[in-house]
Amino acid sequence: MSLTNGASSSTAIDSPLLLPCGITVPNRVAKAAMSEQLGERSGAPSQTLTRLYSEWGRGGAGMLITGNVMIDRRGYVEPRNVIIEDERHLEALGNWSRAGSRAGAVMVMQINHPGRVAVGPLQRRPVGPSALRPQAPGFNLRRPRELSVADITDLRRRFTRTAELAVAAGFAGVQIHAAHGYLLSQFLSPIANQRSDHYGGSPENRRRLLLEVVADVRAAIGPGAIVSVKLNSADFQAGGLDEAESLDVALALDRAGIDLLEISGGNYEAPAMTGVVTDSTREREAYFLRYAQELRSRSLLPLMLTGGVRTLAFMNEVLDRGAVDVIGLGRPFAVRPNVAADLLTGIDAARELPAAPRIPVPGADPLNSYLQLAWHAANFRRIASGVQQVRARGALRTLATAGTTVTARALTQF
Q1: CA-CA 20 to 30 A from 413: which of 22, 52, 126, 284?
Q2: What does the pLDDT look like over 306-360, one tens digit per residue?
């Protein structure tokens, strides 16, 4: 695959990266966000979560991006997400930040609102840009309430407040989640957003809220902190956000002055982001790279590519040719916390990397997505206890363990 030239010929994973805000990332390997589900019932980060990031922080990554941190306790992605609305958890947040950054990694908090795919639909009515149910099993039980303009103003305030608290606690900045079918991604989608006001209709109107949140957050945390965005290259859904429009959004984000754009894709109805390995998923991962090349030909905005990248040679190739600036890894960090250190010393990331449990039958993709998330969550606890290499587990064992754990957490979260 031909890549666009743009970076120095010496750029490799051990090269530092100076972001536009002035923060230097010590190398080009980032732990991408994975939902840890290790918050306390109060929404505070738990000691287990802090220990997990202490292990990851010693593992050599230049950047650690946290899993979903919710801006509103009335809507969260999974039970036991960390929820930051005010200063009550500032000390615990500081401990979390210091644990991850002690060895030099740049800690970035991912901030998010699930919108119409919030869990607990029987207890709380979800919200969205329009009163339209998602076509995803389990997330379409209740029709969401359409957000009013006053609600949107409150959401902007909440994103800003959570970002302020993250930086006050010692995080280098935040990643605003506008991918995977969550709320800001829903506003971008022509399927989910059928509003007739200035937040819907035209592409410019549908991207308005995202750009407002970016501007609000930048004004609140200042020019010296990281403002990153996670954006779908496409929704991979007929009628959803397509590549051409996503590129326009990315260019608008560049003009808005963000520091790093992470490229992803998919949503709960077309889950390209779950990592379930199929031929079409492989094509989507390659599609992310082609998208990055197209964006790079128009912009020098720092780019992070996440999804299926495993070999050191490939990482160094795409960095050296300037297609992207940061390599994001997810599942490898859920298996081996020191995977970045191995890469930096020349050991292939695929070394002894167990496959996530999977049921190899047609139509099992939704269950396999759940299996993988459950497997990750169980592995995080093992890593937090000091395990340096997670062993593979079977699908049935993972299901039995995860079913009990998730049910218990869900019952205590609501």
Answers
A1: 52
A2: 887 878 988 999 999 999 999 999 988 998 999 999 999 987 655 655 556 666 6
Measured between alpha carbons, how far is 334 from 56 in angstroms, rounded to an integer?
10
What the block records as the tokens of 330 is 């997810």
Convert the pLDDT of each residue in 123-140 to its tens digit: 578 999 999 887 765 555
Higher pLDDT, 4 or 201: 201
- DSSP readout, 79-103? TT-EE-SSGGGHHHHHHHHHHHHTT
More confident residue, 83 or 355: 83
Q: Which of 58-72, 243-257, 330-344 has the weakest average pLDDT?
A: 330-344
Which residue in this structure is represented by tokens 């500032």?
Answer: 90
- Bridge-based pairing state of the strands 29-31 and 326-329: parallel
Residue 314: burial class (beta carbons within 10 Å; 0-12, 13-18, 19+): middle
The total number of residues shown for the chain amounts to 414
C-alpha 348/C-alpha 331 separation (Å) is 14
* Pairwise CA distance, residues 93 & 115, whole Å: 24
Look up residue 116 and give its DSSP letter: G
Q: Which domains does the chain have, with CATH numbers?
A: 17-351 (3.20.20.70)
> Long-range contacts made by residues 274-278, C-beta under 8 angstroms, separation at least 24?
274/368, 274/369, 274/372, 274/373, 275/307, 275/308, 275/330, 275/331, 275/356, 275/372, 276/358, 276/365, 276/368, 276/369, 276/372, 277/355, 277/358, 278/365
